[in-house]
Amino acid sequence: MRKRCEREASAIDIENEHARHRTATIEELAENMPKEDSFGQVASVFQQISDCTRLRILWLLCHTTASVGAIARAVGMSDSAVSHHLRVLRADGLVSAKRSGKEVYYTLAEGEKARLLHRTIDAMFEIECPSEED
Predict the structure, then answer these.
(1) How many other CB atoms are found less than 10 A from the CB of residue 5?
(2) φ, ψ for residue 106, nearest 5 deg
(3) pLDDT tens digits, residue range 22-74?
(4) Which of 58, 72, 80, 114 could be cross-linked to 109 through a Cys-Cys bond (beta carbons 3.0 to 4.6 Å apart)?
């Protein structure tokens, strides 16, 4: 019940936001449009999550911290293939790594971009992060 009410409230918020945007003219929007490089940064994030494997890795790292080997087993890929994807995700600032002895553990990066991505991924799969329930 709570989830349905939250979705209904979210739908109302989205409709109100759409109504607000419809009142702006194209000229007003053009004046306030973000800079071109900002669109490039956003496109880069969408490019990352458009790859099914990276999206699966991100989904896992939204909910846990894991080593390359553990991630590789979870997604059914080789360690080297997963390492490649993690390098790309790290370069874009979406995941972070922490060394513990010989092992490196990965998790979703801190920051607004990563938090927004986490919420987006969860919303797209219509789940709630287990840690948010606590």
Answers:
(1) 9
(2) -110, 150
(3) 678 889 888 999 999 888 888 888 888 889 999 999 999 999 999 999 999 99
(4) 114
* Cβ–Cβ under 8 Å, residues 49 and 55: yes
Q: Which residues make beta-bridge pairs with 110?
A: none
Q: Say how many CA atoms lie within 13 Å of 28 toward its Cβ.
A: 6
SS3 50: coil
Q: Which of 91, 60, 63, 88 is nearest to 73 (CA)?
A: 60
Burial category of 63 from C-beta neighbours within 10 Å (exposed 0-12, middle 13-18, buried 19 and up)? middle
Can you read off the two tokens belonging to residue 40?
A: 């490039």
Q: What crossing angle do the helices spanning 112-124 and 52-63 adopt, rounded to 10°?
A: 110
